[in-house]
Amino acid sequence: MGQKFQYDESGSTFFYFLLSFLALILIPATIYYWPREKKRDPEEESKKCHCPPCIKKREFQKNADPWKGPKNFLIKLVIIIGWLLLLLLAYKVSQFDYEMANFDPYEILGIPLGASQAEIKKAYRRLSLILHPDKDTGNEKEFMKLSKAYQALTDDEARKNWEKYGNPDGPGAMSFGIALPSWIVEKENSVWVLGLYGLVFMVALPIVVGTWWYRSIKFTDQVLLDTTQMYYYFFHKTPNMVLKRVIMILAASLEFNKKHNSEIKERDLDNEEVPQLIKKLPNLSEKNKEAPLCYTYSIKARAIIHAHLSRIPLNPNTLEEDRRYIIAKCPTLIQEQVNCVNQLIVLAYNRRIQRLPTIETIENCMKLCPMIVQGLWEFKSPLLQLPYINEDNLKYFMNKKKPIRSLQQFAQLKGDERRNILRNFSEQEYDNVMKVLGNMPYIDFQVKYEVMDDENPTEVTVGAIVTVIVTLTRKPMSTLFGDETVKDNNLINENGVDGDAKEAAAGDTDPQVPVIKRPAWLKQKRGGGKKNKKPVKQPKATAAVVKPKADESPVPSSDKKKVKEEKSKEEESEESDVSDAETNDKSSEDDSVQKSQNEDDDQEWEKFKKLHEREKALQGKSKTSHPVHSPYFPNDKQEYWWTYICDRKSRTLLTVPHYVTSLIDQEVVHLKFTAPNWVGVYTFTVCLRSDSYIGFDQQKDIKLDVKAAPAEITEHPQWEDLEEEEGSAKEDAHESEYTTDEDLSEDDD
């Protein structure tokens, strides 16, 4: 039996192929690409600020993409045409007649398998009277099928072939159907088919893949590789970099160079406008001869960044357009700067490079991000982040008795005091100020540490892996309105800890002692509830029975009864005392069992919390937190935070800065570092920095009393996961890494 390939002559199966192929493309395209209008939430609209810079920013964002309307219309039109074509194909497929393909003569005649010739003829006559075309109920197609079925069953050979092979003509060649129309393989059309094949697979596909590959190798997480290499060079060259130097490196990013980024616009007016802008900006260092800091694009970007931080208005048709593009790129570039400095610190710990960047360098990079978002220099008052507040209004905050220098202090004032300070504002302006202030973050920054997987998690020994658990609880600033009892946060200033933080660090309270709150469903009554516990009585001495002597009179019978009654009472009291002692022993045993059960519950709850936090840490990072009031930043911004641990005395970084991008209500971060290799008391600082607001940074000190490891323990079990990363140079690095409190006191003496 041979083989035979059959192409679709009628085109029916090819339409099935087109129908399924179009549906596979059209359904996901409709879900993901159909333009959707964002529903306006009245509550969110009421929270928005209506100051002139915010209104101007929203208008610009609305008109930023002039082709958005036509593009959405074109996408809708293409999707609608695709669905109409899909419905047309589905209707055409439904009209195909496959009844002849499923030909069964017994079923057509309505007779059972193996019927006699008489039954076949009788059924044929009966149905022919109904289906004959000359009759009123006739049907030509059905009558043709009936005639074919009658011929197949009245011919003995055809009937045998049907019953044996399922075909009146006998066994045929094995056929393979191909769901392609026959005109594709016709000789006349071969040139066009091969030309289309070569155009798609040999020209278009390599171009698309090559373009994607060429662009992908130029970037690392949306930053050019050449820019990242430049960051490494300058941060390694200058380990202790000041803030203005960081701005110079940021402005020299190749994303602002026309040769590396085609979106950059160079105009003839730049030769006039940029020098005029430079004259307004002091300390720009435009005469620096170091490449690429001396290049024209770098000087222009630096001048625009300085103008942005000074809130100098620019030409809306030229430099203002460049400012929006440059400032929108800066947060991503600053995050790359932080990563580069951190990598250099790791390399310095591993003795691969000689110069170790200081903690001030990476903190200056972090400090620059909120400056860019708010359009404000670091030395300016953080009150300027509120709408309508300018330099002239700041004098009203400088009361001689109680000057207001932070946003938190301003929020803690009573309503009439705040209104008195802003008495020159209208009601609408004052409402906008309070709306923005109330939506700003108030972070409850809690820190505790432990040594996981050790028998005593609160005791730190030499070389142990210390896990610092940072709990961030975000509340709106409106919770502080009128609440003067809340002290200022431990704000970070240039010299380290603020005054309140120093008092807290030197107080009697021990901040590093972990406080564990148990859930309500685990809170049980100690000692099995309230019980009337009786004190344990000592058993009384039994009275001796004294026999009367001969010269003494015998005891009367009535007295004998009294003596017996007294004895029985004493015995009952002794028995009751013994029973009381037994019940008290049982209650004490119950108390000990209950305490052990509660301790087990605490341990189980802690294990559950740690497991839940680890699972949450392994999940993908979200990029949604809370919107930032940033009228001078061209795009919408979400609140993000950096948290890390450092040693202020040796000016070194202990952990990689963790970038918190999903702080909505509460976030728990685990920061791990290796305890020093020498016994002593060490003070480390846990820092929290905002990348969106100025004046919201916090820090807390933790004291580690590092003790010697037990003699039977040669190494900690946590080292098993970190041996490959740490390397043998870690021990030598600790000698210069940390400074103990004893060393500091000796230096003071």
TrEMBL record:
<feature type="compositionally biased region" description="Low complexity">
    <location>
        <begin position="538"/>
        <end position="547"/>
    </location>
</feature>
<feature type="compositionally biased region" description="Acidic residues">
    <location>
        <begin position="571"/>
        <end position="582"/>
    </location>
</feature>
<dbReference type="InterPro" id="IPR014756">
    <property type="entry name" value="Ig_E-set"/>
</dbReference>
<feature type="compositionally biased region" description="Basic and acidic residues">
    <location>
        <begin position="727"/>
        <end position="737"/>
    </location>
</feature>
<feature type="transmembrane region" description="Helical">
    <location>
        <begin position="12"/>
        <end position="34"/>
    </location>
</feature>
<dbReference type="InterPro" id="IPR035892">
    <property type="entry name" value="C2_domain_sf"/>
</dbReference>
<dbReference type="GO" id="GO:0008320">
    <property type="term" value="F:protein transmembrane transporter activity"/>
</dbReference>
<dbReference type="GO" id="GO:0006614">
    <property type="term" value="P:SRP-dependent cotranslational protein targeting to membrane"/>
</dbReference>
<keyword id="KW-0143">Chaperone</keyword>
<feature type="domain" description="J">
    <location>
        <begin position="104"/>
        <end position="166"/>
    </location>
</feature>
<dbReference type="GO" id="GO:0006620">
    <property type="term" value="P:post-translational protein targeting to endoplasmic reticulum membrane"/>
</dbReference>
<dbReference type="InterPro" id="IPR036869">
    <property type="entry name" value="J_dom_sf"/>
</dbReference>
<feature type="transmembrane region" description="Helical">
    <location>
        <begin position="191"/>
        <end position="214"/>
    </location>
</feature>
<keyword id="KW-0813">Transport</keyword>
<dbReference type="InterPro" id="IPR004179">
    <property type="entry name" value="Sec63-dom"/>
</dbReference>
<feature type="compositionally biased region" description="Basic residues">
    <location>
        <begin position="523"/>
        <end position="537"/>
    </location>
</feature>
<keyword id="KW-0472">Membrane</keyword>
<keyword id="KW-0653">Protein transport</keyword>
<feature type="compositionally biased region" description="Basic and acidic residues">
    <location>
        <begin position="583"/>
        <end position="593"/>
    </location>
</feature>
<feature type="region of interest" description="Disordered">
    <location>
        <begin position="492"/>
        <end position="605"/>
    </location>
</feature>
<protein>
    <submittedName>
        <fullName>Translocation protein SEC63 homolog-like Protein</fullName>
    </submittedName>
</protein>
<feature type="transmembrane region" description="Helical">
    <location>
        <begin position="73"/>
        <end position="91"/>
    </location>
</feature>
<dbReference type="InterPro" id="IPR001623">
    <property type="entry name" value="DnaJ_domain"/>
</dbReference>
<keyword id="KW-1133">Transmembrane helix</keyword>
<dbReference type="GO" id="GO:0031207">
    <property type="term" value="C:Sec62/Sec63 complex"/>
</dbReference>
<keyword id="KW-0812">Transmembrane</keyword>
<dbReference type="Pfam" id="PF02889">
    <property type="entry name" value="Sec63"/>
</dbReference>
<feature type="compositionally biased region" description="Basic and acidic residues">
    <location>
        <begin position="548"/>
        <end position="570"/>
    </location>
</feature>
<keyword id="KW-0256">Endoplasmic reticulum</keyword>
<feature type="region of interest" description="Disordered">
    <location>
        <begin position="713"/>
        <end position="749"/>
    </location>
</feature>
<feature type="compositionally biased region" description="Acidic residues">
    <location>
        <begin position="738"/>
        <end position="749"/>
    </location>
</feature>
<dbReference type="Pfam" id="PF00226">
    <property type="entry name" value="DnaJ"/>
</dbReference>
